[in-house]
TrEMBL record:
InterPro entries: 4Fe4S_Fe-S-bd, 4Fe4S_Fe_S_CS. Signal peptide: none annotated. Keywords: Iron, Iron-sulfur, Metal-binding. It comes from Propionispira arboris. SUPFAM superfamilies: 4Fe-4S ferredoxins (SSF54862). Residues 146-176 form the 4Fe-4S ferredoxin-type domain. This is 4Fe-4S double cluster binding domain-containing protein. It comes from the Bacteria. GO terms for molecular function: iron-sulfur cluster binding; metal ion binding.
Length: 222
């Protein structure tokens, strides 16, 4: 079995994820790794906006992250067994001010052709919409064919996420390559409002109204 087939077996055997390979020549890791396997793991359950419950939504995020991390762990074991140099970048943000991660999974997913950046500033896949958790593993292995990056948004005239945001943090701008997070969202406002949860719950609010309303991927909801 080819290494690509083995990766597929680990990542998408239950049809609950899409994955692809990104050329990471654009990234700070380009001197150490040739590409990244990028995974968009479908939410463990598709909560509708009508049945919204923050705690339930937070549990879905945790469950989905657990499913994703299991796959990343298995991929690491596979790559190690082939003695392919690999690295799992941290998913946590560097700091609370700029809210940046060392390696952006969202940017990698666009380069891997998995989706585009929606007006909600999250990755939108055609299959599952934005109801995914993203992960990646970097590897030094030039024999996997990299996908073509996505270069346009498929949001069209939709404004649903803009209207759903309780804090009007989204600007309603259609993404195209070159636009930054700051062009699409007041991310500091989004973070500030979600951080308001801390005193009572010891964590930020998962919020996610802008994600749950997106029409993309809804037909794959159950
Ligand atoms: S996560 Fe919540 S506050 Fe942030 S943009 Fe989405 S709906 Fe608005
Ligand atoms: S809700 Fe509409 S505008 Fe927002 S990301 Fe989804 S398709 Fe794009």
């Amino acid at each position: 079995m080819s290494i690509r087939a083995k990766i597929s077996e680990i990542v998408s055997c239950k049809a609950d994820a899409v994955w692809s390979v990104a050329d990471i020549a654009y990234s700070d890791y380009k001197n150490d790794f040739s590409c990244a396997i990028v995974i968009a793991q479908r939410y463990s359950y598709f909560l509708t906006e009508a049945e919204y419950d923050e705690e339930k939504y937070n549990t879905i995020l945790l469950e989905t992250t657990r499913n994703l991390n299991k796959k990343i762990g298995s991929l690491k074991i596979l790559l190690d067994s082939y003695q392919i140099k690999n690295y799992v970048p941290a998913a946590v943000q560097n700091d609370e001010i700029n809210l940046r991660v060392p390696f952006s999974f969202k940017e990698a997913a666009v380069h891997a052709g998995l989706g585009w950046i929606g007006k909600s500033d999250v990755l939108v896949t055609k299959k599952f919409g934005p109801r995914v958790r993203l992960g990646a593993i970097l590897l030094d292995y030039p024999f996997l064919t990299c996908a073509k990056p996505i270069k346009k948004s498929f949001c069209g005239d939709c404004q649903v996420c803009i209207k759903a945001c309780p804090d009007q943090a989204l600007y309603g701008i259609d993404w195209k390559p070159g636009l930054t997070r700051e062009d699409l969202i007041d991310y500091k406002l989004c973070n500030l409002k979600r951080s308001g949860f801390f005193m009572e719950y010891g964590r930020k609010s998962a919020c996610g109204h802008c994600i749950l309303v997106c029409p993309w991927g809804l037909s794959k909801s159950k």
